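It is worth pausing here to work through a concrete case rather than discussing structure prediction in the abstract. The textbook approach is simple: state the sequence, then state the predicted structure, then interpret. We follow exactly that order.
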Amino acid sequence: MATDPDELERIAAFRAELRRFVLRSNSVASQAGLSPQRYDLLLMLKAAGEARVTELCDLLQLQQTAVTQLVKRTEEAGLIERRASEADGRVWLLRLTAAGEALLAQVVSAGRGEVGLLSEALHEVDARLRSVTP
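Step two, the predicted structure:
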């Protein structure tokens, strides 16, 4: 099956904009002392409220061993805490600590507008490529 050059250009442009967004977001996180993985962990936990390691594996798209190590280091840094589930005492739930909440708020505030910039860029790419496609 032949590949449509316009489709390839569109995919490449969208991926370039996504990479710019990720690089800018990672830079903001790094300035606050967070690795990209730790930033993603804090962000996912904040959005979820609390989660199990297995849920975080899916959200972060990482293997369980990687998430377990990330959780361990982040807990040691005092940014997250675990508690036993009330429904099943064998299950540990993770959530942000006050320090984790404060650090995440700092990073989100510093990066405010990045999602809007990404959205605008993607709309511009889409409009530009649609205007040249017959």
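Step three, interpretation. The first strand starts at residue 80 and ends at 84. Residues 116 and 122 are 10 Å apart (CA to CA).
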